[in-house]
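User: Please predict the structure of the protein below. I'd like the answer in structure-token form so I can feed it into my own downstream comparison script.

Assistant: Understood. Taking the following sequence of 149 residues as input:
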Amino acid sequence: MVSQVVALAEPLCGAEGMELVYVEFLREPVGRVLRIYIDKPEGVRVEDCEWVSRQLGDILDVELADVGPYNLEISSPGLDRPLWRARDYDRFKGHSARIRTREPMEGQQNFQGILMGVEAGEVTLQERGTGKTRVIALHQIARARLVEG
């Protein structure tokens, strides 16, 4: 479902000068939530979120009619911006990030450090504290976000 939403939301956001940052479909205590993060160079305003919600909501009502009930949330990525695509790891090279892998690497699934970029489908992260360099395959990353300092 996420790939369908991306295919529908990306052109809509692009036409308005916005970037589709991340899409997630989760089961939460309030029910199922389709959360979409958008951004633009001058920052996202409440009006931008409302516009995308109205426009995309109408499209999704038609295209995903068989999905069942869910809550649509549109938001800016904030300080803990999700890293989703390979280009995100290069774009935010030099920034601090937290990465959780799908499976343990050397007994560990959570890593935090400075992004050193991505090459050939692998993210390089210089770990905070130890200075150790980790190379993590993109397909092994379950979740990644920017973090402060």
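That's the full token string. The chain has a mean pLDDT of 92.
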